[in-house]
Structures are given as C-alpha cells and as structure tokens.
Amino acid sequence: MGDSMEPRIKDGEFVVAAPNHAVTNGDEVLVKSKDGRVMIKILGFARGRLHQLPVGQPEARIVKIPNGDIEKLDFIEAIVKASAWVPD
After folding, report:
1. What are 10-60's pLDDT values in tens digits?
2. Distance (Å, whole) CA 3 – CA 18
3. How far is the C-alpha of 76 from the C-alpha of 39, rounded, in Å?
4. Chain CA centroid to CA 14, Å
C-alpha cells in the first residue's frame, strides 16, 4: 500500500516471490529481517552485510542489514497488476 515503491511497483499491485530461486546482486528481492521488517529491494552484498537499494525511489537511502539479522530473502519472480487478482 502507498507509493514508496513507485514507479516500479504501484499501489494495489503485488509481487510473486520464489523462495527456492537463487538470488544474485541486482535482483529484486523480498527481505524479512529478524526484527519483523518486510521490504522489497534491489539486492547487493558487501562485506558481510546485505545492501538494499530502493526499488522505486532512487533518492531514498540504502538500507544495510548484517547478514545475521536476515530471516528471509526471496527472489521476486513477478509484479502483478491489481486487476489480475480475483478473490475466490
């Protein structure tokens, strides 16, 4: 929700994560930290820390999380338009 990831991901869209897909520098990833934060970022590793570049707003600051503080790191397989989701 919101516009923090625009223009790449718009309000109402959702992502499809592939937890078994390998990740590498430059990939868009879903990151869950052990303190409960969940973010979608562009992956970059450097010296024992995960450097996350903002997906939508290049002027936003880089987030640096020590590798030991990461609970989950999943590859983003797709960004899906809100209109594609139809509830059961």
Report:
1. 888 888 999 999 998 888 898 898 999 888 888 876 566 666 555 665 556
2. 24
3. 11
4. 11
Residue 9 lies in a domain: no
> How many domains are there within the chain?
1
Taking the C-alpha atoms of residue 17 and residue 21, their distance in angstroms, rounded to an integer, is 9
Going by C-alpha positions, the residue among 80, 87, 86 that lies closest to residue 9 is: 80
The reported pTM is 0.74
44 touches 25 (CB < 8 A):
yes
State the Cα angle at 65 between 63 and 67, rounded to 5°.
Answer: 145
Residue 52 forms part of a structural domain? yes
**Domain CATH number, residue 56:** 2.10.109.10
State which residues form the domain around 62: 14-81
pLDDT in tens, 46-78: 566 666 555 665 556 677 788 888 899 999 999
